[in-house]
Amino acid sequence: MRVAVMAAGAVGGYFGGRLAAAGHDVAFIARGAHRDAIRRDGLKIESALGDLHLKEVNVTDDQKQVGPVDLVLFAVKLWDTETRDKQTRPLVGSDTRASKWR
């Protein structure tokens, strides 16, 4: 399954990381210093359910590079919802599902 995670913070990073570790093709959408840190250090999850460190992570700030996916995991801060919602359009195809957490 191809998955795009819009915002790779605590919620998006956790669930996207678990999906990636399970073998799914996951692209994380992140901006600025957060994007750069994930590119440099990978994605680290510390959890009571088990720690995880994904060293090679597909992370970008350009949704057009990702293209349509099977699932968009929309996990942005409330004040970013309207702006970021419009930015998901390149990720959505005729068979795309979306999940929103706020």
Describe the secondary-structure layout.
Blueprint: E1 2-6, H1 10-21, E2 25-29, H2 32-41, E3 43-45, E4 52-54, E5 58-60, H3 63-66, E6 69-74, H4 81-86, E7 92-100
Parallel strand pairs: 1-2, 1-6, 2-5, 6-7
Antiparallel strand pairs: 3-4
Quick overview:
The protein has about 100 residues and is an alpha/beta fold.
Structure description:
This protein is of the alpha/beta class and 102 residues long. The chain contains 4 helices and 7 strands. It has helices at 10-21, 32-41, 63-66, 81-86, and strands at residues 2-6, 25-29, 43-45, 52-54, 58-60, 69-74, 92-100. Strands 5-2-1-6-7 form a 5-stranded parallel sheet. Strands 3-4 form a two-stranded antiparallel sheet. Helix 4 links the parallel strand 6 and strand 7. It is globular and about 35 Å long. The two termini are 23 Å apart. The model has no long low-confidence stretch (mean pLDDT 86).
Radius of gyration equals 13 Å
Helix % is 25-40%
Low-confidence segments, given as residue ranges, are none
* Amino-to-carboxy terminus distance: 23 Å
Average per-residue pLDDT, rounded, comes to: 86
Structural classification: alpha/beta
**Percentage of β-strand residues:** 25-35%
Shape: globular
Encode the helix/strand succession as letters.
EHEHEEEHEHE
Strands ordered across the widest β-sheet: 5-2-1-6-7
Q: Report the biggest beta sheet as strand number plus sense, adding barrel if it closes.
A: 5 strands, parallel
Q: What is the number of beta strands? A: 7
Helical stretch count?
4
